[in-house]
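Table S2 (text version). Query chain:
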Amino acid sequence: QVQLVESGGGSVPAGGSLRLSCAVSGRTFSNYAVGWFRQAPGKEREFVAAISWSGGGTYYDNAALGRFAISRDSARNTVYLQMNSLKPEDTAVYYCAVSPKGIAGTADYYDYWGQGTQVTVSS
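Corresponding structure-token output:
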């Protein structure tokens, strides 16, 4: 099994920044990726960004490109999502997840999920 624990959420004004963390533990895979998704009230879960654990390659949704940055710290088994220039529409619960099949932009590839962390951006 894989365990993921998110942290770093909170409330910030528009234009502010937050850094989310995702601690990964348990089973590992030869070619896995860690992704960030978010879900706002009344909306479907949507992809934000992902990173390949072995190669470090990244993939972003267009809404995140240029404002968000995903990175990993192999020594700490932790993935980060640095979010800058936050907007009210970024308000959501943010989840990290593991895809044993490699980097992908759809939730179907991700088999393991954290409990989520709330991000609230006020106007």
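Notes on Table S2: The longest strand covers residues 18-26. The mean pLDDT is 95.
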